[in-house]
Amino acid sequence: MIKKPFFCLSSPSFAYELVNDASVPPRTINAPQNVTLFVKSAYTQKDALALCIGQCVKTGQKLTLFNNSDAYVISSVTGEIASIEPYSGNFGQAYTAITIKTEAVEEHDDAFATSTQPTLESAQAYLADIPGCPPLASLADPERPIHTIAILGGDNDLLVTTNQYAIMADTDAVAAGIQFLKEMTGIDNIIIVVPRELVQGFGHTGAELAAVDTVYPSLNPKMVMKNVLDSEVPAGQTCEDAGVCFFSAEAVASIGKAFKDSRIPLTKTITLITKDEKTILVKARIGAPFSDIFKACEIEINANDRMIVGGPLTGTAVYSENHPVRADTDAIMVQDKADVSLASDYPCINCGECVRICPAQIQVHMLVRLLENGMYQEAVEEYDLNSCINCGLCSLVCASKIPIFQYIRLGQYELAELEMMEADND
Ligand code: SF4
Ligand code: SF4
Q1: Does the C-beta of 371 come closer than 6 Å to ligand 1?
Q2: Looking at the chain, which residues constitute the CATH 3.40.50.11540 domain(s)?
């Protein structure tokens, strides 16, 4: 785990990892024997299923889950559907998991190539789940018109270099993606945000360039809004509410490749963070099990080791080596059981470290008291829960190892659910 001071007079700071040499390609993981793809829809209407077990699918084929809904995934392999099951994600979010047994001979579906022009509608119909997960729906929301697209040429966690690699190694695809985005949306105001050290080489992309320093969390969208775009997002609002839509560099490169090559990209770049905090960039099919990556990189997972999807500050633990790579899996981190810092039941000792480090200037030590007791509404009203930018720094520095960030995420999730229920009842 990231080494941290116990107490210090000034706030500690943590720097992003920088890619030294983008000419070294990521390690390619062999085609998987099975893939599991998650559809963002609950498996509730079995009678209305548009797919069936035993059905043959091609690489790049759009798999629509229900006859009466738009929820889909793109098959990342050629093979046969082996199972369709409900899956419960973080905080019980409902998905449907489709497992496909891969055939040795790959066939590509040509529906995307033959039927699509580069329009926002076609992108929404085929490209919502490509590597980097472009937030296309945000571009099409008439309630929140977007005037600026910001492309993050870096990653929003420590040790993770997936999007830095994308902007450096796939610059031409990013440039093509920018051109398509301009044509599809009519938005000309596109800005690439990169760490200051990487500022060379993007002149031909058709986007403006902005540099941020390498101190975490300078690449957090709300920090970019404040420090680069001079537009502070009010508490409880999103960057989209302020007219700015954030894309990862990999998502823009994926759009560029999809329309340029008339083929949907299905291979995800991932930063693998090993037990000794070394990083390895790998490329794996969306849906491939983590175990394929561990095997290829000779990483042994023992009992009580921890696997985390995402980086060390904002990642989420998963409990099976069969967990699949998803279109937004930018990093996988493995911790040896000896390094796993367990959440404690020590009380807050009022050391103030969380308050000193919080970039949103929240009274975190007071906020956590309410969150621990499930007092979410009070947490919003009294201690500004909605100003949190989800950086995870408070948990990292907490002397009592209180899982502050997990409490924050749970609180935000519960409040969002409540809001949705109220909106449904109106
Ligand atoms: S995660 Fe913690 S440190 Fe980061 S903004 Fe939220 S409360 Fe502050
Ligand atoms: S929550 Fe943790 S970091 Fe914050 S004051 Fe209490 S012990 Fe210190």
Answers
A1: no
A2: 127-261
